Amino acid sequence: MSSKKSRWENDSAEDAEEAARRKAAKEAKRLKKAQKAEEEAAAAAAAARQEQEHDAALAVSDEPPSKRRKVSTEPDEHAPTPPTASARYLDRDDGEAYLLRFPAAAIQPCNSVDDYEPLNRIEEGSYGVVSRARHLFTGEIVALKKLKLEKETDGFPITSLREIQTLMAARHPHVVNLREVVVGDQLNQVYIVMDFIEHDLKTLLDDMPEPFLQSEVKTLMLQLLSATATMHANWIMHRDLKTSNLLMNNRGQMKIADFGLARTFGDPCPPLTQLVVTLWYRSPELLLGAEEYGPAIDVWSIGCIFAELILKEPLFQGKSEIDQLSKIFELMGVPTDANWPGWRRLPNSKSLNFPRTKQTTGHLLRSKFPLLTANGVALLASLLSLDPEQRITAEDALSHAYFREDPKPKAEAMFPTFPSRAGQEKRRRLSPSAPARGEAPQLFGDVGLEGRSGLFAGMEEEEVGGGFSLRVH
User: Fold this and answer.
1) What residues contact residue 417 under an 8 Å CB cut-off, 6+ apart?
2) Pick from 203, 219, 147: which is nearest to 409 by CA?
3) Could you list the residue range(s) of the whole structural domain that residue 288 is in?
4) How far apart are CA 116 and CA 100, in angstroms?
5) Domain total for the chain?
6) How many CA atoms within 13 Å lie on the side-chain side of 199?
7) Of 348, 353, 352, 239, nearest to 289 (Cα)?
8) Looking at residue 185, what is its pLDDT?
9) How many CB atoms lie within 10 A of CB 419?
10) What is the pTM of this model?
11) pLDDT range class, residue 441, cuts 50, 70, 90
12) Which residues are 148's β-sheet partners?
């Protein structure tokens, strides 16, 4: 019998080795899968246990609550000093994220308007009614503005939201201070509490027998420009600067108020509404229908206020938009492509005809303000520039030469005081009292003979001479 080796013997050994290797790999894969299943089951059990503990902690127990340890508000001298945030951070070596707590104002409900006692109504505007009130606990006198919400059907008005937002953002010594917002029992009873200021500039100018001195005008203008520059630096336009919206106290301090039309702007400025600013203080680009404008409209209003402080009356008192444009162009000159490039592209300029001669171009401020210095006229001309791009900014106007020349700005403490119409004060006049009821007094004695003084003193000792007499025919 032949002992010849089969030629398939080596192949069978290699197949067996490959089969064993595959079997081992399959077993290792099965063990790994089982281990993964065990880990997932353990994680699920831990999550379920944690959820049960959380539910148990939130469950309401019928047992009375345990007594809490009384915490004293007095500091403990022997207590260790709590570590700072950096120290706590350095003590943590595990690398785990944690939350740091910092002191901040807490969110709390508004106070009630019942905390204030109404005294008298000051004025009513388009967006609210302003009254004078007294805080019942502190006794402070404040201004209480009730927002007009009776006709609102779409929630809180956007104008009031803008007013509150801009008052909070434009904190400045010459911007009226917003104290708080209080509410009443009804949804439409929302009030803004502000500092009470004795006068508004419009009423004060009407009651003053003489206008402000140049030194006083400079002080008021510096205050107005400083507050406006701060607003513009915070991307806020007031859009309704006028003397009736400028308040003044008896310490020579002016404050900007009534931010009902104020809003934020950007660069580039988005399309905005055209119907802003009271007509007498509205800039020519707004009158000509500009849809894109910037803080230069506030600067034009400041120029009008500057002139009003000097004249004691508004500079441009137009009866309509066209009449207002006519009065502006009569004083400042008709615009041309040289002094206002692109003004013909404004919507309203295409339908209006303007005369253009040498007599109608250029401003006439020098003849309108003969007592104003050259630097004062230059500042007024830069504030009332027809082209908003060439109009001076509030920040640059603060450093104008007009404020450095004589007379220097008057100190606030040296300003005169005036009786407050809003505070129901009356001016005291040195005059006789009204006669009381009764009989008319009987008059006795010689008139002008005894106890005479002044012009008739020593009349008896005078010598009598020839003199002369006048005969009236």
Assistant:
1) 250
2) 219
3) 200-414
4) 39
5) 1
6) 23
7) 348
8) 87
9) 14
10) 0.67
11) very low
12) none
